[in-house]
Structure formats: structure tokens, C-alpha cells
Amino acid sequence: MEHITALTAELLETDRTAGARRAAPAALRAVASAEARAAVGHGTAERSALMELLQVAAWILFDAERHGISRRFSSRALALARTLPAGAASVEPLVLSVLCLQEEHLGRPAESLRISSSVLAGRDLPVRVAAIFHVREARARARLRQDRRALRSLATARDLLADGPGERDPSWTWWFDRSELDGHHGLALADLGDLDGAAELLHEATAAGDAPAYRSLFSTELARVLARAGAWRETDARLSALVDSVPDIGSVRALNVLERTTRTIGRGPRVPRALRDTSGHLSAALRRETGPETGRTHPPYPAFRAVRRP
């Protein structure tokens, strides 16, 4: 168990500081190592530790846009959760929260909504767990163009977060703070067509100091929103600040957003020459970092069916 716990802690630190691009190979090795060791026993503590490792690896591989293996790890984590006492399965909602985000990311908001709604239907959720799933629900409803219901879910999440940490909040909810909420609120508004409101909230989300590496996504999404709005001067300023940082961006999702932003600029009317030059430099930097995989389309993964607890 100690070996698995140490692997998980190391992965979390690598992901937090360097991002999924650097952490993904280590995540695959960690899972293989944990499963190959005969020391992995059948006790509750061992199964709980392995479930947590699988969840962390699934998150990392999701942010690295490696969705097939990410979903397999999530499925195995949920299967382990079925074998644990309720208290020992506290990471199970985190697995489901990643699956909600993944389904929405892959263009299946109805499936994301099904998962989030099933969790929210449970009784007596810890405060931050409930807030997280209201945000997941809002993102799915925004993609489904359910405007009022999406905004209502976001307002509920903001009210819950305003109450501060609850005594029953699991330790894994540490990352869900005001900046996280602002970022997802902004992305929901972008899906609803409110680009000015989206830009304002995404700007707030990027202002946080010591943020996890994956939150580079909010900076790149802000650039994309500005480009969609035709705010060319602001887009140029944002992209100019990002060009040199491309080698340090650890989220493959964020890099793919940048690639889509260059395509938006390429199709845009009356784009200033300076911005076209910046976009060209950015495209070259992305090719150097990721090669032909940047911007690839997602394979048609089947809808995920969460393992339900008996």
C-alpha cells in the first residue's frame, strides 16, 4: 500500500507543477507497477489506494487527450469502489466528476448531464462535492443550450462555494476554488454565446497566482474567446504573451485550444497583419512541441456507463 500511495503522491506533484504532458508517461508506468506488484493485497486499504492511483492516472491522461486509456482507468477505479465500504470509497465522486468533464469535452453533454444529475440526486452531499457537480451540470446544460438552467446551476455552485469549506468536504476538493469556478463559469457563458461575459470571467480565472498546471487551459480559452469575438488587438496581446510559454504548457487540452484559436484567426475577417504574424509564430511553436497530433479529432468513444454501487 505504501508503494502505491507514494506513486500517487509523486504523480499528483508532477501534474500540479509540470502538467499532463510530462505526467502521462509516469502515470502509465505507475499503474503498471502497482498492478504488477504481488504486494498489492485484497484488503480495504490496498484497494482504496489502488482506486486513488487509477483516478489520478485517469485525470492526467484525460488532460493529455488520451481518452481511451483514461476511461479504462476510470472504469476500473469505479469497479474497485463497488468493493469498498462507503467511507473508503470517498474518491468515487471525483472519478465521476472527471467523467462528466470528459463526456462534455468529447461532445456528449447529455451523457455528462446524466452522470452529474445522478450524483446530485444523492442525499446529503458535502458542500464542495455538490458545488462541483452543479458546475458539471451547468457546463453540460450550456452545451445543450439550456440557458436558464445552466445559469441557475452556476448560481447554486457559487452560493455553495461562498459558504466556505465544509467540515465534511473530502480532501480531494482542494482544487475547487473561486478561480476554478470562474473559469468554468466563463466557459459555460462562451457556449451560451455571451463572449464578453466569458472573457471577463476567464480573465479573473487566470489572475490566480500559484495555480495547478492544468489551469493554463483558462488562459488559452480566453484567447480563443477573444478571437471568436473578433477582438483582434486583445487577441494579439494575449497570444503574444503565450507564444514563448508554449514549451511550458503541460495541458494538451490547452495546446489544442491554441491550435483551434489559430484556425479561428485564419478564417477571421480583416485580421490585422500583426495578429496573423503572431498566429503564425504560435502555429510554428505548437508544431515544434506536439507535431501532427495537435488539434486531432477525437475518436468516437462509446458513451460511458458509470458503475453503480449496489
Describe this structure in words.
- Residues 292-301 and 306-310 have low confidence and may be disordered.
- The two termini are 26 Å apart.
- By secondary structure, the chain is an all-alpha fold.
- The chain has a domain at 1-89.
- The longest helix has 20 residues, at 44-63.
- The protein is built from 14 helices and no strands.
- 69% of the residues lie in helices and 0% in strands.
- Helix 9 (178-191) runs antiparallel to helix 10 (195-206) and helix 11 packs parallel to helix 13.
Order of helices and strands: HHHHHHHHHHHHHH
The secondary structure category is: mainly alpha
Largest sheet: none
Range of strand content: under 5%
Helix count from the secondary structure assignment: 14
Mean pLDDT: 90
- Computed over alpha carbons, the radius of gyration is 20 Å
* N- and C-termini, Cα separation: 26 Å
Q: How helix-rich are the residues, as a percent range?
A: 55-70%
Low-pLDDT ranges: 292-301, 306-310
Shape: globular
State the total count of DSSP E strands.
Answer: 0
